[in-house]
Write a structure and sequence with these properties.
about 20% helix; alpha+beta; elongated
Length: about 140
């Protein structure tokens, strides 16, 4: 009887040991699930790498400041099914209150070396693989 219970009880540990997939990487870490990014040209590749390296993460802070801050889309990342493409943003305008606290699942806050605020807005689509769009908005 005890000999039959031991293998069955070991099967109960499988969900704690085995995982269907690895945990997702940090949003700013190099994307381990994707090959090299595809850019329209070499200039975009160099500019995107430099702009990502200049960003430093800052915590979102909420204040009662009512001034409006204008953000422009500067970069667009599309990651779908193992393909990663990066393109320049369309300069679309997004107005927000100064230091407006975004939903924690919506945006990641950064700051550039010269003090301008950057918000990365991430949208993930449920699919069998990683399907993610990220838009980088920089303060005007």
């Amino acid at each position: 009887m005890m000999r039959d219970l031991l293998p069955a009880s070991l099967l109960l540990l499988v969900p704690y040991i085995g995982h269907a997939q690895d945990t997702l990487p940090n949003l700013m870490a190099d994307h381990a699930y994707f090959g090299p990014a595809r850019f329209a040209n070499a200039t975009d590749s160099a500019d995107f790498s430099q702009s990502r390296n200049r960003l430093r993460s800052v915590p979102p802070t909420g204040t009662k400041d009512t001034t409006k801050v204008r953000y422009r889309m500067v970069w667009r990342e599309d990651q779908h099914g193992g393909l990663w493409s990066v393109s320049r943003g369309d300069s679309s305008l997004w107005e927000a209150r100064a230091y407006e606290s975004l939903d924690l699942f919506l945006g990641v806050h950064f700051e550039t070396a010269d003090g301008r605020r950057v918000v990365m807005v991430v949208h993930e689509t449920p699919c069998g693989l990683i399907c993610r769009n990220a838009r980088y908005y920089m303060e005007d």
